[in-house]
Specification:
The complex is a heterodimer of chains A (281) and B (170). Chain A contains five helices and nine strands, in the order ααααβββββββββα. Chain B has a single domain, classed as PhyR, sigma-like (SL) domain (Butyryl-CoA Dehydrogenase, subunit A, domain 3, Up-down Bundle). Classes of the chains: A alpha+beta (281), B mainly alpha (170). At the A-B interface, helix 1 and helix 2 of A face helix 1, helix 2, helix 6, helix 7 and helix 9 of B.
């Protein structure tokens, strides 16, 4: 029979050569943390967001896609927006690339988008007559690749968070820890507070968008304030992650103010926004 | 320390880069699944990122990270009920090399037989070198309970692994 010390040694041996992609984990935690900080302040804390990135049941292979989509401007809907953007943010380094060699592709080579570039593009994709204004620090996003705006389509203000970042490693090798997993929780989320009358129901769908990538479209649970949002992750074959979250209200300045029963626009509109190939990391 | 919020982010990054591997080892042995372990670590680091300033000021970063990791794991166990993955999936789920792969699979299978709290205690005590008191603090229980869980866990492992000693020492 093994004694306690031998069992301990076996456990240590078993764990000794486990080498996760630490830089990927940390970078993703930082991104999630930044989002969560805002939503936690708003009372949306909880582990549910983790379900967003659950087991890699739907991990996919970049090489199975068509060649990378070139970044090019795509005409959007008419732009009638106004802006109250702040001075250009300090540039910050882009996401740290992963290192899994099994991926035959490299991360996008362009510089991460500035907030002004993101605002300009977002504005071009939204209906005329709406307004957009950047949420300034300390609550708004900082640096390239992240944008937070207040959006008003004439029916109430809504907070929009948008992140465009590079994810580096996509592999069919199941041992790769950098494979981007994307799934819906089962069961779906439950509301923490009362969902406004007329609210969109909680939903979640992961789907392959032909020629573009893997996308998760969700309508999230309501927090204790009744605040919820449309939440879309798109992982493109060109290694760009586009994330958008469109709330049914705004933050004033840190607590949510539910301004409407439903987020502005439709799921289809926001899907079209994230799928626009001009986003680049 | 300055008032620049970026400094806090760098501190977080330094901590996370230094500790993530060890957190992952704990998570992997507790969960038995590479991707679930990644989720646990990412969850832990995300929560830590959100609470960084407060936790850092209290000087409890390591304790906080472990506590979040273990609590997240235990709460997931409670939620999943029958959600354990079959042992056959473990190898597919991401053992990073062939080194000790058979040992790892056998150990993971044995660990899976332990109740979640007992598994956590054994791993924290013997992988993470946490004291009985520390584990008790992490789990929100008494040192006596930790000793009991540890003893029962090791005893059960001994039973389960007994037949495989030759594998380990050959």
């Amino acid at each position: 029979m093994l004694n306690d010390r031998e069992i301990a040694e076996l456990l240590q041996r078993a764990a000794a050569d486990l080498h996760p992609a630490v830089d990927v984990l940390v970078s993703r935690a930082e991104r999630q943390g930044r989002r969560r900080r805002r939503w936690r302040i708003a009372g949306i804390a909880g582990g549910n967001a983790l379900a967003v990135m659950a087991v890699a049941a739907l991990a996919y292979t970049a090489s199975s896609y068509q060649p990378s989509v070139p970044a090019r401007p795509v005409p959007g809907l008419a732009a009638g927006a106004s802006s109250s953007s702040r001075p250009a943010p300090k540039p910050t380094p882009g996401p740290t690339p992963g290192t899994t060699p099994s991926s035959g592709k490299s991360a996008p080579s362009q510089h991460p988008m500035t907030q002004r570039q993101m605002l300009r593009l977002l504005r071009s994709l939204l209906p005329a007559g709406s307004s957009l204004s950047i949420v300034p620090p300390p609550y708004g996003a900082t640096g390239r690749g992240s944008l937070e705006v207040d959006y008003n389509d004439g029916q109430g203000e809504a907070d929009i968070m948008l992140d465009v970042t590079a994810f580096t490693t996509v592999s069919t090798t199941p041992t790769s820890s950098a494979v981007i997993p994307l799934t819906c929780p089962h069961p779906l989320w439950t509301n923490e507070g009362t969902r406004p009358a007329g609210a969109l129901p909680i939903s979640c769908q992961v789907r392959h968008v032909p020629g573009i990538g893997l996308e998760r479209d969700a309508v999230m649970y309501a927090d204790s304030f009744g605040f919820y949002g449309i939440n879309i992750y798109l992982y493109r074959a060109d290694h760009t992650e586009v994330f958008i979250q469109v709330g049914n209200g705004y933050f004033d300045p840190a607590l949510p103010h539910v301004d409407r029963a439903r987020p502005p626009g439709s799921m289809a509109l926001w899907e079209a926004v994230v799928q626009n190939p001009a986003w680049h990391a | 320390m300055t008032a620049n919020p970026d400094d806090g982010q760098q501190d977080f990054r330094d901590f996370a880069m230094a500790r993530a591997s060890q957190l992952f080892r704990i998570a992997y042995l507790m969960s038995g699944d590479w991707h679930e372990a990644e989720d646990l670590v990412q969850s832990t680091l995300t929560k830590l990122f959100v609470a960084w300033g407060r936790v850092q000021r209290r000087g409890s970063v390591d304790t906080y990270a472990r506590r979040v990791l273990v609590n997240t794991y235990l709460s997931q166990r409670r939620l999943r009920r029958s959600g354990e993955l079959p042992v056959a999936d473990i190898g597919d789920a991401g053992a990073p090399s062939a080194v000790d792969a058979a040992l790892r699979m056998t150990l993971l299978a044995a660990l899976r037989e332990l109740p979640a709290r007992s598994r956590a205690v054994v791993i924290l005590r013997h992988i993470d070198d946490q004291s009985v008191d520390s584990v008790a603090q992490l789990l929100g229980t008494t040192p006596a309970a930790v000793k009991s869980l540890n003893a029962r866990g090791l005893s059960r492992l001994r039973e389960l692994l007994g037949a495989d000693q030759s594998l380990f020492f050959s």
